[in-house]
Amino acid sequence: xxxxxxxxxxxxxxxxxxxxxxxxxxxxxxxxxxxxxxxxxxxxxxxxxxxxxxxxxxxxxxxxxxxxxxxxxxxxxxxxxxxxxxxxxxxxxxxxxxxxxxxxxxxxxxxxxxxxxxxxxxxxxxxxxxxxxxxxxxxxxxxxxxxxxxxxxxxxxxxxxxxxxxxxxxxxxxxxxxxxxxxxxxxxxxxxxxxxxxxxxxxxxxxxxxxxxxxxxxxxxxxxxxxxxxxxxxxxxxxxxxxxxxxxxxxxxxxxxxxxxxxxxxxxxxxxxxxxxxxxxxxxxxxxxxxxxxxxxxxxxxxxxxxxxxxxxxxxxxxxxxxxxxxxxxxxxxxxxxxxxxxxxxxxxxxxxxxxxxxxxxxxxxxxxxxxxxxxxxxxxxxxxxxxxxxxxx
Length: 394
Known about the structure:
Layout (H helix, E strand, L loop, with lengths): L2 H24 L5 H23 L6 H35 L13 H26 L2 E9 L9 E7 L10 H13 L4 E4 L14 H9 L7 E3 L10 E2 L2 E2 L10 H9 L3 E2 L3 E5 L2 E5 L16 H4 L9 E4 L6 H7 L3 E4 L10 H8 L5 E5 L2 E5 L16 E9 L1
Parallel strand pairs: 1-14, 2-3, 3-4, 4-7, 9-10, 10-11, 11-13
Antiparallel strand pairs: 2-14, 5-6, 8-9, 12-13
């Protein structure tokens, strides 16, 4: 979507929320000064995401990072607060014909105050709850059996994580818990399904600390990963990329970060171990390199032995029919965050054939993890941060 359109839509939503806020504040205060002060506070808070997206880099990096950080927190509150104001607006419209004509234009200070406080209380409570839930890492267990005739039937334990989204809102404690959960499960191999970053390496506070945390992951056969659609340098507003795809490139710092963390990137490459083949696929939205297009499913798996289990690690849960035709048995993905924030999980379910969990699709098995980090507001509601442990039998 064009960056100007995204900015315009955000501005219009802010304007709408401001008019609804004024509607309820007018009955509370006879003088205009309190309403003016509230309007200024609301406008300044709404400017933070815009400043975070549009401020030049590196001229004001610290200020820009703070705008991104506090802007994400504001967006979490703003989304719920505006949604609640919209619900009140709809109730007013529906109930308008039912009200006494003489009282239609009258709103008591008590009613207005209660309506506003209720909206603020629910929006704040949702964000506090969402922050607590999002920083609690769950472990989800799956057992998947593949009907493959290899010389000896075996099993392998895979730890799957995704969408770490290191950013100015990240907390080291969350990723330390993730690593402890992985290591306690004693996986044979660890797979990371992309989105280490959130569109900016410079946004991360103390990146070496996070690289050291990831370096603490232990498994018998190592840690392998693919890049996601946000593992590039790009400007982001309300979750949408403002930078055109052909100008989104992966920085050297991003690549060096993963090398420091001992993470092996599978860019349209395949690794073999214990009779299992794992093919890592480039992201279908943005490759992050001069190579604009990734390999087709058939080319990606052309060297695989179809008598052996074939696993595809792909950031976005898409292209299942082509992968099945090419010989994939199991596709492991992330990207969706499980919807991250209600009602996002309901909306995402309309966009993806598998938004979360285990599901056979078009003849191929699929597991989508909800990820560990946050994208945008640092909260989760209706979803959870997780480490997926997959016991694969064949």
